[in-house]
Design a protein that fits this description.
Blueprint lengths: L15 H10 L8 H15 L3 E7 L3 E8 L5 E3 L4 H5 L7 E3 L12 H4 L6 E8 L5 E9 L8 H19 L8
Antiparallel strand pairs: 1-2, 1-6, 2-3, 4-5, 5-6
Helix pairs in contact: 2-5
Amino acid sequence: MTGLTFFSPARRPKDETRRQAVLDSYGIIGSPPGPVFQAIVAEAARAMGTPTAAISLIDRDRQWFLASVGLDISETPRACSFCAHAMLHPNDLLCVPDASRDERFRGNPLVTAENGLRFYAGAPLILRDGTPIGALCAIDVVARGPLTARQEEKLRQLAGRVIDEIEKRKPQPLG
């Protein structure tokens, strides 16, 4: 079927209001990436063998990139976000070998664009209190096979490092 434009935006968590308030409390949206986050995304791209990697935080109506390599944009609409899907499954990586063949994503504007996204691998970013805030992802415009066990382990480890760095910004209680 040509001209297919349908895609499935990720559902919002049931506790979306609380999730957003927790994310807002860290004051990280809009902040500069910093060298630690930049090093993590560079390492993720190398380990996954992709030209692009990003730390994506899911804000109200957008996904905002805290740090990235291979991207020349700082955000996309939340409705198009693969990372919004990834964060809904805290114990699983989301791997999409070819988004143009995946029912959830094949009509997504990020996929249908010229040189559109084909491969996606994302590790959910879950704060220590259980709040999902986004994903560490690696993407490519070329379809590829699933991640190896070593790549999965590395992506999870790097996502843990992102959370460690974000948790350092945790707001302290007043008093």
